[in-house]
Design goal:
It comes from Ralstonia holmesii. This is 4-carboxy muconolactone decarboxylase. InterPro entries: AhpD-like. Keywords: Signal. The chain is mainly α and 207 residues long. It contains 9 helices and no strands. It has a domain of 115 residues: AhpD-like (Up-down Bundle), CATH 1.20.1290.10. The chain is globular. Helix 2 runs parallel beside helix 4 and helix 4 crosses helix 9.
């Protein structure tokens, strides 16, 4: 009887935990926005031409953070010094390293359209170093991977990036990595859902 009660208690705890997790930073309906949130949503739509979506939904619980984040993304996503194709490579590496399914779901097709080879994207998804990368892609892949995994960049890796992209390119590339790391962290904390049709990234073993 004690074992049965223990199992029932465990099951109840799991259900309670799941229900609580599903309510993490839930999306706020527009008709429930307060004045600050409504202004942030209005500014978002003016800048992006679409309503608040994706990672910006959990951020709406702190509308000033959402607006500042969106403003940084307006530059890093579309106008960085390394160009859109290499930016998308940084985003894929970042999404993979954080196992961020929504980020991958959105940017995988964008990266392919921008010119990243499917075989390169597949290798990143598997956690493998891609083969067949261009020299620019190798520089970006090595820089981003080292930065995320080692929390720093080796002198040789930095020198290659500096020679190719200059100081502005290094700042922008680091900024893209940091920006999409921020979005990945926010969505992982919120347990932000992906569409049912979205393929989920395999989880890396815990350290």
């Amino acid at each position: 009887m004690k074992n049965v009660l223990r199992l029932l208690s465990t099951a109840a705890l799991v259900l309670m935990t799941s229900a609580h997790a599903a309510e993490r930073l839930p999306t706020i309906p527009p008709d429930k926005y307060d004045a600050e949130q409504a202004k942030a949503a209005q500014d978002f739509q003016a800048a992006r031409k679409v309503p608040v979506f994706g990672p910006f939904e959990p951020l709406m619980h702190s509308p000033e953070v959402m607006s500042q984040t969106r403003a940084m993304g307006d530059y890093l996503r579309y106008h960085s010094a390394i160009g859109n194709t290499l930016s998308e490579l940084v985003i894929l590496v970042t999404a993979r390293e954080w196992s961020q399914d929504y980020e991958w779901y959105v940017h995988h097709p964008i990266a392919l359209k921008a010119g990243i080879k499917p075989s390169i994207a597949d290798a990143i998804a598997d956690g493998r170093r891609p083969t067949g990368m261009s020299e620019d892609e190798e520089i970006v892949y090595d820089f981003t991977t080292e930065l995320i995994r080692n929390k720093r960049v080796a002198d040789g890796t930095y020198a290659r990036a500096e020679k190719r992209f200059g100081n502005k390119g290094i700042v922008d590339m680091t900024g893209i990595c940091g920006y999409y790391t921020l979005l990945a962290m926010e969505m992982n904390v919120a347990q932000y859902p992906v569409p049912k049709k979205a393929a989920k990234l395999a989880r890396f073993p815990e350290p």
